[in-house]
Structure prediction request, 958 residues.
Amino acid sequence: MSELRFEGVTVRFGTGGRALTAVDGVDLTIPSGQVVGLVGESGSGKSTLARAAVGLAEPSAGQILLDGVPLRQRAGQRRPLQMVFQDPYSSLDPRMTIGDSIAEAVPRSAQVNRRREVGRLLELVGLDAERAAAYPGALSGGQRQRVAIARALAGRPDVLIADEITSALDVSIQGTVLNLVRSLQRELQLSMLFISHNLAVVRYVSDLIAVMYLGRIVEVGPAHQVLSDPQHPYTKELLAAAPRRGTTSLPPSDPTVADAEPADPHHPPAGCHFHPRCPIGPLVRTDREHCLTIDPTTDADRRVHNTACHHAASALQTVSQ
Amino acid sequence: MRARWISVLRTPVGAGAGVLLLGVLLLAVLAPLLWSDQASAIDTEHLLEGSSAKHWLGTDNLGRDIFYRVLVASRTSILLALLATLIAVVAGLALGCASVLLGRRAGRLTTAVVNIAVAFPGLLLALFFAVVFGVGAKGAVLAIGFAGAPSFARLTQTLVAGVAERDFVAAARIAGVGRFRILLRHILPNIAEPLVVNATIGAGGTLLAFAGLSFLGLGVQPPAYDWGRLMGESLNGIYVHPAAALAPGVAVVIAGLAFNLFGEAVAKGFGVPAMVGPRLRDRPAETMPAETDDDEAVLVVKDLYVSFPGPITPVRGISFTIGKGEIVGVVGESGSGKSLTALAVAQLIEPPGQVRAAELSFLGAPLLGRLAVRSTAAARRRLLGTSFAMVFQDPMTSFNPTKRIGPQLAEGAREHQGLNRRQAMARAIDRLRAVRVPAAERRARQYPHEFSGGMRQRAMIGMGLMGTPALIVADEPTTALDVTVQRQVLRLLETIRTEDDVAVLLISHDITVVAQVCGRVLVMYAGRIVEDLPASELATGARHPYTRALLAAVPDLETPLDEPLAVIAGRPVDPALLPSGCAFAARCEFAEDRCRAEDPSLVSHGPDHQVACWNPQGTAAWQARYLGTESIRTGQR
Prediction:
């Protein structure tokens, strides 16, 4: 039960002309016991944000707070943040039994019998405790992902970060892993950052949804609100592209922007990052030149869902309506 | 692990080298115990003699028997060589792993040091160190050891960098495991094999280097002796008593070969997983003359089998026809054989894989069997080169990264259509425009890495459009792309189909993608088509329990949030252990005894609809039996 807060977190790779700002001044709060779903395309900085939280990437600005205390001060002790990775084939050491992998993550301070703890965790994720002696090679992708979840839970985390944990799995297995994550989260009252590019998957597990584009959070709000009343044109585009039951034709898209190329993260566009692809922006409507120069993130908190778009509804208007 | 060592020793080279190495090591251990008296016995009556019955290889200037001295010297030579190798490995490991232990900045410094050290020739370093550490066995061991360290350090660095990138190392770091423990528990076990192999090969080289230093008088000093020194001592008399100088040389060669060959054999055994299993018999495919019952058919596949040694048969007798301008989707889980089907159609299955079919013909021309042999290979290549296009899953690897996009597109047109360079390039730019790559002229001059994933996939489709394709086979073309880009690529395929009347075979694991784009859907499970139906019927009229379960398992924006997601219990069948009955029976909630005993074949259920199931769902008979069972609708358990 802990609240994780990102405050102006920026992560930069490289220096000089080849520098890449993967995460650009992100403010995001994961309330205690809730799941924040983070969506965005590849290269939008979702995974880098997660890696910054668990200490695998060093933020060059801003801070990450757990219950109001900067995370960096706690390094070396029990790790309050744990992460489950995308690819269960690479996240388990092939030369270690799954029991050893999980046992390694059990904190030394915890006064428990490691073997019993490993058995308990394996049963928690729906695997037989006897399987502790198995090597990852003997397990299917879905089972490996369960082991990876058990290992993350072994650290008794306050916050769990799940980075695209189902995208490497077949659809038939994806369901079991999502069901498990959802029930564990409810049972253990975990705070969670759930990262995925699939809006339908995020919708299923999240209380809040944050949308990321080119290193910035462009919209964040309660899941049902973001889905039913999206403010940012990018969120709308993602929603339009998401699969719906029984559709037999491709959803329509605006031909003027459909073939626009995704922006180069090394040289993000000035003003609003999304303007070269925006269906309501300067490409389509010539009067909206301010999108080219004025950054909408600076006054995002004045709009509904903290949307980084000049044309989103103002929070004040909605209140007065 | 043990099985691989045994398989190494089973190869002729491995067995020979193993025996040789064992012999050399045994000699090194036993020779001084057995023969040191004979080797040091001074026979003043026979000084500097040639070979005789008493002294096989003659005697040295003190009348000592050279044969025994060569045997006894094996211990010193091999022991010192191994010591030097040990120093090289330990120093190399320490330098190579420094980046893990010391953090980024200090790690970068050690990398720079290793880079500089590697640039010097080994022998130069050895001589340099030999001078620094002084003349003598100890000095030589240190010199050769440290001279060999940089190359080991480089190897270790490369291997460590590969493993340290992996997620399990990141996971261990997040779990709070210290750097040293990560190195010991996660990194070293995963790089041990190549290191051991290289150390073995390195030992052979060290042996030779040591003999060289001793030969020059920088190594072992009298009264001790090793092979190098024996060679040096006998060199003056090489024209009188050649055997005395050659024998230690031969010993160095044999011991060096033993180490090298063994290392090579192990490296080969561990590097390339050997294909085990009986070889498939070469059975020429029985191909019937193409029946011209359907002029519109672009691709006719009848009873297609793809098999690999094992023997396993991941594609088991599938048949379908694709008409002109038709877009057909193939869906299934990984391992269902859908990609192999695509590769078989494209003639891209490499030996030892084998493709068999009663008929496999493209635009009326057979691609398999005796009839295909009759039409020349060149003609077939031209047909495939101009009328057939393939789009692969990973746009990152499907272009040659060292060539510009335009010339890569133009290459095929110059080969198959006889265009000159300028014409081909103009066509390439035109085609890039056709697949809506913005600023086509400029982009044609760019390299693949300057293209985003979606643009690269467009360029790949553009490459297929260089000719006048009748069929595009797209194997998971959008899986590696983002949802918004995915839609653009799918729409592009759809446009090409309608404008140019091109047939498309779209392979995907995502049933919603297939439903959106395709006219007809083939559902594959365990190498068979289990259902063949119009895409419009997919949502409501699917008959096979697998198709229904697959549809139910995909969450969408209307999935109820208060229920668990539908899942398909169990796991896909192993193609090596196929059950006798229906392959899906073990995961099917409607399975009966008949399903487990007999394999259902694909039978017609209404127009354009075929199902391979004993209990097709949604039929009148089925409704009578299961009406009111709630779980059927959602496919849940």
